[in-house]
Amino acid sequence: MVNQREAQTRYQQAEELDGPVVLPIPKATQDLEQAQEDLRIYGCCIVENVLHPKIVSDLKSRMDRQFEAEQALGEQCPDRGPSNKIVIPNLVNKGKHYLDLVERRETEALAGYLLGKDFLLSSLTAHMFLGTTPTIELIHRDQGQIPASVEFPAICNLFYTLDEFTPERGSTVVFPGSHRWPLNHRVHPPKAELGHQVHLAPGSVFAFDGRLWHGTGANREGHRRRALSVFCCAPWVRQQENAAAATSHDIFESAGPKLRARLGLKTYGTLGNINGTRIDHQRIAFGNVDVAFPDELIGEDAQLIPVQKTRSKN
Ligand SMILES: O=C(O)CCC(=O)C(=O)O
What we know:
Blueprint: H1 4-7, H2 32-42, E1 44-47, H3 53-71, E2 85-88, H4 96-102, H5 105-115, E3 120-129, E4 155-161, E5 173-174, E6 196-197, E7 205-209, E8 214-215, E9 227-233, H6 243-246, H7 249-254, H8 257-262, E10 296-298, E11 304-306
Antiparallel strand pairs: 1-7, 2-3, 3-9, 4-7, 4-9, 5-6, 5-8, 10-11
Helix pairs in contact: 2-5
């Protein structure tokens, strides 16, 4: 049984299932407390009517534009991999409209519930298809780098949908309840055909526990099926995108305290220090305090090394 205090969250693990039982997909709701309970019982939840249709339409065209513009970069275009299901990485630098999702109340309520109030943004990415795909993609757990014996969530993935998700369009295959499976079913993935495919309306958020087995469905229609993933982690987990190196300093400088903290500019106990972290109002080095990105690092014989700050060209 999970020790709540040890995990530093309000989250209480539901009891282990007898075997690899696949529960139904929970119904869509607009009630965030219900969604939190769905996360606890099923390992996933659907919150509908989250994004206004105008915002959905705007995000869709921005995402398409971003894709086309990156393709035109040629060799500098991020690697898209071999599949027609692609990811546009590192959206932190690609517009405020994406960053807004990080601070949305649904992100706060769902990621905060699973991971505690000090959770970090692990990555911010766009997901879409460029055509059909032949099979269901790899069934995996998002917290695959964390030992399977860990009995609590360390990752929460929130998919903000911009298109309808249907099985023909390759909607996500999920195994509700698999975050409660016995240890011997948490290492090797179940057969993809035994999972359920989600049905999601555009403008919803589909959130799931990092221990849930899932994968991208086969897209038989070739529809783009766009979504934005706000992928969050516990404050002691290494972030998927290297926030300190991959965030433009314009973003760090213009971000409010909440976003800076989500990007890692806040200590968590002894983690996340810069230059030893100067804390004017207290003499202890522990606790959760905001840290500033310094202009200089302290080097040998206290030589000051200027920090190479990345800046966008415009
Ligand atoms: O695209 C999907 O439906 C699921 C993506 C996925 O498996 C992931 O982001 O971990």
